[in-house]
Design brief:
Layout (H helix, E strand, L loop, with lengths): L2 H32 L5 H24 L3 E3 H7 L8 E3 L8 E3 L7 H5 L1 H31 L2 E2 L3 H14 L6 E4 L8 E3 L5 E4 L8 H16 L2 H14 L4 H24 L4 H14 L11 E2 L3 H11 L11 H20 E3 L8 E6 L10 E6 L5 E5 L5 E4 L5 E8 L6 E8 L5 E2 L2 E2 L5 E10 L4 E4 L15 E2 L2 E4 L7 H5 L4 E9 L5 E6 L6 H11 L3 E3 L1 E3 L2 E3 L1 E12 L1
Parallel strand pairs: 1-9, 3-15, 5-7, 10-16, 10-17, 18-27
Antiparallel strand pairs: 2-3, 4-5, 6-7, 6-8, 10-13, 11-12, 11-14, 14-15, 18-19, 20-25, 21-24, 22-23, 22-27, 25-26
């Protein structure tokens, strides 16, 4: 396929993933609304599942085998017919056909490369922004000093034990005394504190560590990083931005609930957060990948939630988490394998099958074999000889048409682009017949001849509107005496045309290296054969035949 077709395929793949991501995130949004009275941990889990599945869609779609849906495909694209071009190489039954098909509308096909470029630029900008933030966080953390304050280390160890954090958590002190506390990292998580934290009272120290270590226990930094990657991939999709924002908000509220569940008073905790937000600097934009404890944009809603005594502050149990993971995987695998009918798929591929007289051939088998995946799609012609494939995956195909009594039609290369329609009419040629005759003689004695059963060698396997020729009179060739005496053996291959009167015409020897005496004997005998003519739709026609006369000597 050409570059434009490759752009169309990539654009269709992106559109298909976007549509499926819309469905997944829409379901997550509905579930979050339904669970609005449940805990923030439950809603966070819902948004995390939505983002992770949306991020996994492209990978799973590439790795998993495909199954297709026309209903979803019609929602992804609006397809219209496109012009097609059929090229014939002039090599008999082996034409090469090229289909030029377009998606949705001509301008979309023309600018598919530009649309992909715009998407790539947007994704690259967001990924570069995220990478820059991570680099700045790494440099800032490298310049921080490990905390030596015993009270902080002992408090952190106690909280890690209560939250069942097996990973080693590093507490580091920023050189900036007004840096906002934040956490980042997954394998070796890090909690960054301002240098002024050494002077904090016990209540603030415990509240801050509880909040930050709850992020570590819940793997919030990793999930938020996945959300940033999802925003980079689907930067044009408003639902993804909403999901990433809600994921961060619910993670902060869930960590607030962990602090309050430990026995910290809600009013006192709210006061501590307010004081941190007022006295400490806002997290640097370059550090956006970190999770800061007192981000000003989320404080108001967090205060409302933590001061509401009826708020559900329950945790998500391990059993519930495992159950959710199993259900999501069972849903994600078939959903990712789903291919939209317009996602990398051609439009209708149709045509009509005719015989040499121009009459329609019914029940002919049309076989399309994808040359890349070797996937085979089949259909049959109807009573008027018409066939149709509603949609085939884009790619190059071998087309084969089979019908009993006819030669197999083959098209070695059929290139189908995305969308469009293609029409190919096929004329089948009536197949010839073949006869095998065995002529055996003893090396000492008279010649003995045995005739084969004169069966037609079929070229195809299905259907039949052709009445094949039948032998009415067969003269067995006589083994030439001179050839028998000289011990000459061999096979004479004859070609003939069975006329409409049933007589073999245009007899000729096809293998010139055969012994002349054997060839003469075969020609003389076959010229006296008589056939019942081949009938096509009730009318006699001429057909080719191949006759094999085998001369052999027995001991």
């Amino acid at each position: 396929m050409g570059t434009t077709d490759s752009f169309e395929t990539a654009l269709g793949f992106l559109a298909g993933c976007s549509l499926k991501a819309t469905i997944l995130l829409g379901l997550a949004w509905i579930a979050a609304v339904v669970l609005r009275k449940q805990s923030a941990a439950a809603r966070h889990c819902v948004w995390a599942v939505g983002i992770l599945t949306a991020l996994a869609l492209p990978v799973c779609a590439v790795l998993l085998p495909a199954w297709r849906s026309n209903a979803l495909g019609s929602a992804a694209w609006l397809w219209v017919p496109a012009k097609t071009i059929a090229e014939d190489t002039g090599s008999g039954n082996l034409p090469a056909m090229v289909v030029n098909a377009s998606i949705a509308s001509p301008w979309l096909r023309e600018f598919s490369g530009m649309l992909l470029l715009i998407w790539a630029v947007g994704a690259a900008i967001l990924i570069a922004r995220l990478a820059g933030g991570l680099m700045r966080m790494t440099r800032g953390s490298a310049g921080a000093r490990p905390i030596r304050w015993d009270r902080w280390r002992l408090c952190a160890e106690e909280i890690c034990g209560g939250l069942k954090i097996a990973r080693r958590v590093r507490l580091v002190e920023s050189a900036n005394p007004l840096a906002m506390p934040l956490t980042w990292g997954m394998v070796r998580p890090l909690v960054l504190l301002p240098s002024s934290a050494s002077e904090w009272p016990e209540t603030r120290r415990r509240a801050v560590l509880l909040h930050e270590l709850a992020h570590v226990a819940r793997y919030d930094w990793f999930l938020q990083l996945c959300a940033e990657f999802a925003r980079s991939l689907y930067w044009f999709h408003p639902l993804v931005w909403m999901a990433a924002r809600n994921l961060r908000q619910e993670s902060e509220r869930a960590c607030d609930d962990a602090v309050l569940n430990s026995g910290v008073d809600a009013r006192e905790y709210a006061g501590q957060l307010l004081d941190l937000a007022r006295t400490l600097e806002k997290a640097n934009r370059g550090w956006s990948a970190g999770l800061a404890i007192a981000g000003a944009s989320t404080l108001e809603r967090r205060f409302i939630a933590m001061l509401n005594p009826s708020t559900n502050r329950g945790r998500l149990s391990r059993r519930a988490g495992i159950l959710i993971a199993v259900v999501v995987i069972c849903f994600l695998i078939p959903f990712s394998a789903l291919r939209l009918s317009a996602q990398g798929v051609s439009g209708a591929f149709a045509g009509t099958i005719h015989d040499p007289s121009g009459a329609a051939v019914r029940n002919a088998t049309i076989i399309m074999t994808n040359q890349k995946s070797n996937a085979i799609t089949m259909t049959v012609s109807d009573g008027t000889g018409k066939f149709a494939f509603k949609a085939l995956p884009s790619g190059e195909y071998e087309m084969k048409v089979e019908k009993k009594g006819f030669e197999t039609y083959r098209a070695s290369r059929v290139a189908l682009g995305s969308g469009g329609e293609f029409t190919q009419n096929v004329t089948l040629e009536v197949s010839g017949t073949a006869e095998d005759v065995e002529v055996a003689a003893k090396r000492s004695g008279e010649a003995e001849a045995a005739a084969g059963s004169g069966t037609k060698v079929p070229r195809v396997k299905l259907g039949g509107d052709v009445q094949a020729a039948k032998i009415l009179e067969k003269k067995i060739p006589v083994y030439p005496a001179e050839a028998k005496t000289a011990g000459v053996q061999g096979t004479v291959m004859l070609h003939a045309v069975i006329g409409i009167d049933g007589k073999p015409e245009s007899l000729r020897v096809m293998n010139e290296q055969v012994d002349p005496e054997l060839a003469r004997a075969a020609l003389e005998a076959v010229s006296h054969w008589r056939y019942q003519p081949t009938l096509l739709n009730g009318q006699p026609i001429e057909v080719d035949t191949t006759i094999m006369v085998n001369f052999s000597l027995q001991p």
